[in-house]
Amino acid sequence: MQNTSSSGQNETNAGPTTHFGYKTVAEAEKAAKVAEVFHSVAQRYDLMNDLMSAGLHRAWKAFTIARADVRPGMKVLDIAGGTGDLAKAFARKAGPSGQVWLTDINDSMLRVGRDRLIDKGLVVPTAVCDAEKLPFPDHYFDRVSVAFGLRNMTHKDVALAEMRRVLKPGGKLLVLEFSHVAKPLAPAYDWYSFNILPWLGKKVAGDEESYRYLAESIRMHPDQDTLAAMMKEAGLDRVRYFNLTAGLVALHEGVNLG
Ligand SMILES: C[S@@+](CC[C@H](N)C(=O)[O-])C[C@H]1O[C@@H](n2cnc3c(N)ncnc32)[C@H](O)[C@@H]1O
Where along the chain is S-adenosyl-L-methionine bound (predicted)? Predict the structure, then answer.
């Protein structure tokens, strides 16, 4: 049975519920379901990213890296860092006097990321951690980034508040995420997402369901203005966003003014 609580949150007899793609699941179950997805796709994740986006994810990340403006000596936290694309670039920019953490809730993804960085001669601290409970002190980092991770988090408001908490005054948060595409492109994008993506997932990663979840979770994610409002609500200032590839993806930024 489903009720709506006074806070407006949906609840079943098993407690509060949330979205897992288009499915409604108990909040307590979502993290485990997301974990299944990323344990399953970890080994083929990078190849799938290139195939699904025709390489565009590299340009979206390059824009994020440029906007992050990481300088030598900076402390940087990459949350939901997975296979380490952002951490790799940040580590090169922060240099030996800096400190770049590659973190993720999923040890399969993190292991692939850590090994990739080591292969490039970069040894960075890595930690399995949940963005909703970051094991770092207040005001520690100059930059915090999360790329294609926020969408998977159960309590996005809690995660955003944690990201702000660990930022130094003047530090910047960068959130790169799928967003809401310009209306004229929506029909073609929907067709691609619900036909080609699961097919590619099946052929390349042997996992159709995880890529169906990807398509659904993108549709359930807050649009550009809603996410900007959530970042302000979490205490971030100077919040702005950039639409990339007609809003298929958006980069949101916010600063902790303390
Ligand atoms: C689509 S991958 C993105 C990986 C990488 N940032 C990139 O852009 O290629 C999403 C990542 O979010 C991680 N994730 C999901 N929920 C998380 C949470 N609550 N805390 C930290 N990481 C989480 C997953 O384990 C997964 O590695």
Answer: 83, 104, 130-131
